[in-house]
Amino acid sequence: MKRPGTLTLLTVTAAGLLTGALLHLTGLPATGDAVWALVTGVALVPATWWVVSALRGGRLGVDAIAVLALAGSLAVGEYLAGAVIGVMLATGRALEDHALSRARRDLTALYERAPRSAHRYTGGAPQAVDAEQVRPGDLLLVPAGETVPVDGTVEAGTALLDESALTGESLPVERAAGEGVRSGVVNAGAAFDLRAVGTAAESTYAAVVRLARQTETGSAPVVRLADRFAAWFLPLTLALAGIAWWSSGDAVRAVAVLVVATPCPLLLAAPAAIASGLSRTARRGVVVKGGGALERLGHARTLILDKTGTLTVGRPEVVDVVAAPGSSAEEVLALAAAVDQVSSHVLAAAIVRAARGRGLRLPRPDGVREKPGAGTEGRVAGQRVQVGKARPGPGRPVSPWERAQRARAALDGAMTVWVTVDGEPAGVVLLRDAVRPDAARTLRRLRAAGIGRVVLLTGDRAEVAESVGVVLGVDRVLAEQTPEAKVRAVRQEAERAVTVMVGDGINDAPALAAADVGVAMGARGSAASTQAADVVLTADRLDRLADAMDVARRSRRIAVQSAAAGMGLSLLAMGVAAAGKLPPAAGALLQEVIDVTVILNALRALRPARGTRTAVDAETEDLLRRFEVEHVELRPALELIRQTADELDGRLAEEVPGRLEQVRTFLTERLLPHERAEERRLYPAMGRALGGPEVTMTMSRAHAEIERLVRRLERHLALAGDGGLRAEQLDDLRACLYGLHAVLVLHFDQEEEAYFSLAAGAPA
């Protein structure tokens, strides 16, 4: 409840207390007592109003004790005690209001910085208009340093964006032409053109603003506990005061008991700590809809996760490009991406993104035609290129190579896009919705924070869900679930323990509403899921959930700790006062110290804390980013090793020796220098961050195995000499190449999960 004029009340009561003291010191005690009595009366008016307001709301808090203490001080002539109580009451209310306003500051900033205007091109020149006037399809100019007003796509060039206010990410991100940009982010680079895809009211930032307006301290269970606590604390106080009066015959003792019993630290500390926790989650890119949701999040013991878009990135990514005999993976990907440049299909976008990410030049296609359900075809450099479903020519049987790729795709749970050139298969692109790089570390953090059971709940196929569950080590996998089945599963888990459900799709909304705490991946999730959820992650990172849980547990712990300490001290002081050892004035001063102390302690929840997150310094984070980018550049070439091993058969095709030399060059000139640089620079930094050099021992052992296998490959090439490979070399050479590929893929995955996921920004 908002208490108007608390700062004014504090000023008046404090000034009156000091004035009365000065009058006593100057030999005017009667006038000083009159001033103190006036201060007591001034404080009694709002205190009575707070009690009446609470009663209208169906609550009887310990503000009633403050009223009795103030009235009792006037009745027995303890004017100094009454004045001190008045200052104490005003100070507590002012501190609480400050805590709440500071806690709301980060949430308020979300909608205060909402874009109000846009620069829309009219007649070839940008004109300033209200953001509400922008319509889908409008071309906008986003000047440097300004906030993007609506969701859209980059029209040309590259946009450098600061997304920290929206997502909590500290590093700027780049968006290339055709990539989406969300409203609310700031242009951190040069001006760029944006093609609007929606109105301001439909934009991402507007949705976040609506969520922020729903966010308030609420009445968390720990706060309601305070109200229940007051129900027995008030009678206890009155009984103890009555006993002290009856046993001693001195009403002053009863007033002293009332003085040290008011106000209750529980009612001040709990809301301040919960509100402070809401502020901390907002700073981490997490919108929590009320203190109740934050408190329940801190109690959670079961975590239910949707797969697509939650544990996975939520969009297909190219995981491999397998070239048919006689072709290269780079050539296959470049041809496929060249044709798919004009396609709007989600798989086409993934192929083009992968080609550009590998720095491939994409020639302009001619005569492109898109056939729904079949794919795209066109001419590239005079060749007829088809990209899509496999279409064997009439009379042409399926080759063993094609059957092998289909079997591999089925085993990997991957989607296939076939590339044919002039009617002959040139290769196949394998795509999969990859597991988020931060997923495994986040689940470990959540378990460390108190989650005892993790359930994967998805509508996807069982074999795909099981493969993800095995990688992440979940306790139970429920696959091929309908929305109704998801709701039943969530309710069953909620009967056992406080349950958190995380999802992002429209079909997840009912399950989110059924959970004790629903968490929506709001960065790319549906509007239905964000509205149904209690918590929304505005950043597209699952680890923000672990951050929010850290904050929730810490806030509740601080609230209970502050309240318990304050109440314990108050009860001890009440006993001393009942025994006649603590006069009202001294008791008032003591209670003031207790209340201020517990409120200040509750405000500790505003300060950042590491929680389960492993902190890394700026220098180490720069190293992580550098080597992560190198991984992105090196990964495509790893498939060259596997492809070369596949081609090592008894026929000894003429191109194999050249391919082996290409593999050797990649390994010795690019890969090994990367691994040695990691060993020299990254691993010591990781040892310092993670607690000692032992944590990198397994990674260093992998480096040693990689180097051993590379040396073995070099010896094979030296033995072959000018005469070429001998038949007796094939088995060992093939095992060496397959071993290298397996070790490298596993090692890259381990480093990305264990080390690179520690970086605070978005993955490279």
TrEMBL record:
What highest taxon heads this organism's lineage? Answer: Bacteria
| SUPFAM superfamilies associated with the record | Calcium ATPase, transduction domain A, Calcium ATPase, transmembrane domain M, HAD-like
Looking up InterPro entries in the UniProt record yields: ATPase_P-typ_cyto_dom_N, ATPase_P-typ_P_site, ATPase_P-typ_TM_dom_sf, ATPase_P-typ_transduc_dom_A_sf, ATPase_P-type_domA, Cation_Transport_ATPase_IB, HAD-like_sf, HAD_sf
Q: Is Flavoprotein given among the entry's keywords?
A: no
> Pfam families, alphabetically?
E1-E2_ATPase, Hemerythrin, Hydrolase
TM annotation in the entry: 6-27, 34-52, 64-95, 229-248, 254-274, 558-579
Q: Does the keyword Metal-binding apply?
A: yes
Signal sequence extent: none
Task: Report membrane topology.
Answer: Multi-pass membrane protein
Per the database record, which ranges form the Hemerythrin-like domain?
624-758
Keywords attached to this Swiss-Prot or TrEMBL record, sorted alphabetically, are:
ATP-binding, Cell membrane, Membrane, Metal-binding, Nucleotide-binding, Transmembrane, Transmembrane helix
* Domain P-type ATPase A: from-to ranges: 114-212
Family membership noted in the UniProt record:
Belongs to the cation transport ATPase (P-type) (TC 3.A.3) family. Type IB subfamily.
NCBIfam families this protein is in? ATPase-IB_hvy, ATPase_P-type
UniProt protein name: ATPase P
